[in-house]
Write a structure and sequence with these properties.
The protein is built from 17 helices and no strands. The chain is mainly alpha-helical. The two termini are about 40 Å apart.
Length: about 325
């Protein structure tokens, strides 16, 4: 019982130290999203063949709801499959606030972000080229009305009353009547109220959610290390770097922003090597894949996108590990 109390105390203290940094980081992030997310969305919709490039760069911005937005846009065929893959691979998710909270060197952070963006661009472009060669790029037109029909949002009724509704409004309305998509759209769009309080409130909610998750992860792994022994865990990861890479990528597939928190925490604690960390963070795209599976009717397309993201994450993780890259 003594070791349980010690682990609990250490976990609480370590977590409390992170709260001020987490809150200040999320406050800055919410201010950015509050002022820029409409412009981000417009840029992606107009990007055309350059979608993977634009999507990968914008995906690196600290907005964990951006992958959900990209998934919805893909379901409406507003953006290409390559753009969606690029966004998911480059999405920074919760990695940035955790790095800032630990007061890590900006060089390490920007090095990982740069790699994610480059991988996202290359993978996204290759996906679009491959689909073009296979003549599976679709008709090149948006099909947002189909997305609305599947969500039963009755956008057509709004069109009859108001004339011509904008595509952006249709996509947002579609999400409001779908449980999973609703949460994703709320996360990406509910910050656009007026005044400072909505920004502060969102920052507080994020901080509480991530703080609780960090505490649970810290406490769990604290018990694991105390019970199994730090040396034994270190030897297990050192002896099986390939297996660790595959497992980390599977963790990244968890449709929750908390997956990247766990991966980043393990890396910063020295439990996870650079290769597995990169594999997990490349695959970790928040709720993007979850929204894709709910909003896109073609299950084969969903499986293909998920498989490509996982395969790219594992491949790059193995390359990073084989090359001995350090961050």
């Amino acid at each position: 019982m003594d070791f349980l109390a010690d682990v609990l105390t250490e976990s609480v203290i370590d977590t409390l130290k992170l709260i001020p940094f987490l809150f200040l980081t999320y406050l800055a992030m919410e201010a950015l999203e509050h002022s820029a997310s409409h412009h981000v969305r417009a840029a992606v919709e107009k990007s055309g063949k350059a979608g993977p490039v634009v999507g990968s760069i914008l995906g690196a911005l600290p907005q964990c709801g951006f992958s959900a937005m990209a998934a919805t846009l893909y379901a409406g065929r507003v953006v290409t499959a390559g753009t969606l893959v690029a966004v998911i691979l480059s999405t920074s998710d919760e990695m940035i606030p955790v790095f800032v909270a630990h007061q890590e060197s900006p060089t390490r952070l920007f090095g990982i972000l740069a790699l994610k963006v480059i991988v996202g661009i290359i993978a996204g472009l290759l996906v679009d080229v491959a689909l073009g060669m296979l003549h599976r790029t679709g008709d090149g037109h948006a099909h947002i009305h189909e997305l609305c029909e599947r969500a039963h949002c009755h956008c057509e009724d709004a069109d009859d009353e108001n004339g011509s509704a904008e595509s952006e409004a249709r996509v947002e309305t579609a999400g409001e009547h779908d449980d999973v998509a609703r949460r994703a759209h709320e996360h990406a769009h509910d910050h656009h109220g007026h005044g400072l309080w909505p920004i502060v409130r969102s920052a507080l909610v994020h901080t509480v959610q991530v703080t609780v998750f960090i505490f649970l992860v810290t406490f769990f792994f604290g018990l694991l290390i105390e019970g199994v022994g730090e040396d034994a865990i270190g030897e297990l990861l050192a002896d099986h770097p390939v297996r660790a890479t595959f497992i980390a990528a599977l963790v990244g597939l968890i449709p929750n922003c908390g997956a990247s928190v766990a991966l980043t925490e393990l890396f910063l604690d020295g439990t996870l090597a650079a290769g597995p960390m990169i594999a997990g963070l490349l695959v970790s795209g928040g709720v993007g894949l979850l929204v894709l599976w709910r909003t896109n009717a073609d299950l084969r397309q969903n499986a293909a996108v998920t498989g490509v993201v996982y395969a790219v994450g594992v491949a790059i993780g193995l390359l990073v590990g084989a090359a001995g890259m350090m961050f």
